[in-house]
Amino acid sequence: MSTPPLPPAALVGRHAIVCGGSISGLVTASVLSHHFERVTLVERDHSDDAPRPRKGVPQSTQLHGMHLRGMNILGNVFPGLQEELLAAGGRVLDMTESQAWCSAGAWYPRIRSGLGVGIQSRPLLEWVIRQRVQGLPNVRVLDGREVTGFQTSADRARVSGVHLRAPGGGQEETLEGELVVDASGRGSRTPQWLEALGYPRVEETRIHVDVRYATRLYQKPEGFEPGWESMALSPKLPEQRRLGVLQLIEGGRWLVTLAGWLGQGLATEDDAGFLEFARGLTQPHLHEAIKNAEPLGPIHHYRFSHNQRRHYERMPRFPEGLAVVGDASCSFNPIYGQGMTVGAMQAEALGECLRQGLGGVSQRYRQRVGKLLQVPWSMATSGDLRFPEVEGKRPPAFGLTNWYGDRLQRLTLHDEQARQTFFRVVHMLESPAVLFSPRMVFKVLTARLDTAPQHPAPEPLAARKPQSQVA
């Protein structure tokens, strides 16, 4: 869905620098192009001429999702982006009509939700966005460079640029700018660089979950038409710890991800192990679909050890001329699919802070992002904290909230209003507070969930063997 472009903005400076060409960095560069005469995007990897996984994004081969809030922001920053993704092979699927979704042992009804979700691989999404950014007349993409530190004013109260060099060594150069944005990802060196400049070390919150992913591409078999275009088998937390997702992406391919919490993900590299893991999911349908499908490459593994939030908003001192976005600020358990959306929200927030001028923007932005992150961080970590082995501070009434949430989710299976509200909250279109409105609380507490209608599962239908495998 396209939305109107960003409104005109007054220029506040001559040059801004974005460190990192992730999706968060690309969106930020575009936002800054409305506020600065020039923007330089510094990226360690070299630009590619096609949608391919790149070294700087080791998880790029894995399944990625973007919530509707994130896609709306992308449509605002890059008008017509959804149409370009569709032209490149992406798809828009209705959340429940096009997807077979089993959550905690119950299937959602296959009816139109009206919520169309963009589906494509991460490399395609990033590549299309990168083409748009490279086409901006006042944005320069400087690839094949790594940032080695900040340049500051003499009193170290302001970041005034960055030091660069070719990856692995070489002569260092300095790039000056009035605003530096760190979009370098989870491995950001900003905490160490600030500490070396005499600032206190930023406080971090970590919640260890040891999530392990295994993803493989398959060719969708000719003639296999089960009536759905993607499938998600979600566990009942905390008793179950594995999930499986099959998604139809560009090129008529299936992207299949198997994952698990607390070390329960797939660890083997062989075909038999992948299929056996799929067979052990809560429902047989995903295994039935892929057991005779043709693999299109190796199994790609990815391990995510912990949720990580850096509380820049709590630092008593922080330099002007610096902002941190995306995973460099906060990285979430990827199972919940919030990362790219929250990065886009931060880029949007930075642009709004710049509308008040360049002076004091770093302080305004970090305080605003501190509040912005509260809801997505709570949404992601509350699921992980349901596992008794996961260490972390549980909020007040945590058990009662989980009980309410479980009843609410069962209610969404047969109550259309509850389902629509719940999905809008998941996609960050509405605040979680709407789930506790008097009307919703009454429904949740009084619903006879034990007698609620059960929706039938899709008929298990094995994918037809490719002709070359037929005896």
UniProtKB/TrEMBL annotation:
Record keywords: Monooxygenase, Oxidoreductase
One protein family per Pfam: FAD_binding_3
MF GO annotations: monooxygenase activity
Matches recorded under SUPFAM superfamilies: FAD/NAD(P)-binding domain
Domain FAD-binding: 17-360
Annotated spans, Disordered: 43-62
Signal peptide: none
Compositional bias per record (Basic and acidic residues), positions renumbered to this chain: 43-52
Keyword NAD: no
Name assigned to this protein: FAD-dependent monooxygenase
Gene source species: Archangium lansingense
